[in-house]
Design goal:
The complex is a heterodimer of chains A (253) and B (84). Chain A is α+β, with helices and mostly antiparallel strands and 253 residues long. Chain A folds into 3 domains: 13-45, no CATH class; 53-118, FAD/NAD(P)-binding domain; 132-250, FAD/NAD(P)-binding domain (3-Layer(bba) Sandwich). Helix content of chain A is 25%, strand content 23%. In chain A, the strands form 3 sheets. A 5-stranded antiparallel beta sheet of chain A has the order 7-8-11-10-9. In chain A, strands 1-2-3 form a 3-stranded antiparallel beta sheet, with no helix packed on it. In chain A, strands 4-5-6 form a 3-stranded mixed beta sheet, with no helix packed on it. Chain A is globular. Chain A starts with a helix and ends with a helix. Chain B has 84 residues and is mainly α. Chain B has one domain (3-64). In chain B, 60% of the residues lie in helices and 0% in strands. Chain B has 3 helices and no strands. In chain B, α1 crosses α2. The chains are: A alpha+beta (253), B mainly alpha (84). Chains A and B meet through β5 and α4 of A and α1 and α3 of B.
Chain lengths: 253, 84
Amino acid sequence: MQDSWREMGAQLHFNTTLTGFTGEGSVRSVTTSDGEIPCDLAVVCTKKVANTALARAAGLKIGSANGVMVDETMRTTTEGVWAAGDCIEVPHSVSQIPIQGLSGSHAYAQGKVAGTNAAGGQRKYQPVSVPWGMVAGEWMIGGVSFSETLATALGIPHVVGVAEGISRARYYPGVKKIRVKLLAEPGTLRLIGAQMVGSEGIKERADFLAMAVRTGITIGDLATMENVYSPPIGALNEPIALAAQNLLSGLGT
Amino acid sequence: MAFSRWLRATSERYLMIAAQQRLAAKYGVPPPRPPRGIDVFWLRVYVPAYRAVPWRLRSAIMRRMPGSHRLTWTTGDRPRGPTA
């Protein structure tokens, strides 16, 4: 990915601290621990922090992720009040620990649940596995639930399987590599996370793996999964299955 | 910010940096910058102490913290057997 960004003209500055902006009326440069970098535009990317001031003032309880506490119906701890979106926190499907600041698709689904229940209906939301994907240079990256870094950070016991596959038949024009990393719980070998990099099909695999995490699918299930073999759109061997098979091989099973 | 939220946010930050250091060494990629100032305490004292606690105990402590997970969240029973 770094090579791809560089080929597209980007200059990468790792371990560099932003110390300020210069310019009057508009930004002219950013000052960093690596020196001054001229620019016409600065894009600031930070994590989302829920604005819970109104909820707090209304007496709603706030959780450890700084989100409004809700149950599966999106009902808050105050009778007759429902909440949805970035201001709430919901349990992670693997750890059960609440997390906050998810995607627009999560917020939309939560809003439907909250609205339905507030209007007297009955609808439930589920703990989340958080599939994600994005474009990175000429590549796509994506994943679900725990990455190896996050699992290592939290100290969650895990085993890892990695494989490199292809997106369509190897002889077909436009074939691209896909690298898949799967994380599983030792012992049960239930899937707890995945990371992928490739040029196509990342989003669909992330969605599929999110359902696999939610339903408790094991590496054994994935190693023997069926897959579409259609030369223009699907290779003989599914990269997810190859990663699962490699994980099992690494365990000697 | 309540103490539990501050502890969680600060803990997450330094646990991620420590994990990035480990994986940078494992995969041969650039590590995060070396710790400075208060970073030293969190990375050299807190992180090893956190890792010394078994996951089951750590998980139990985290689940005792206030949050949505302590309200009602059910997972529906899934039908088993043939569908047709």
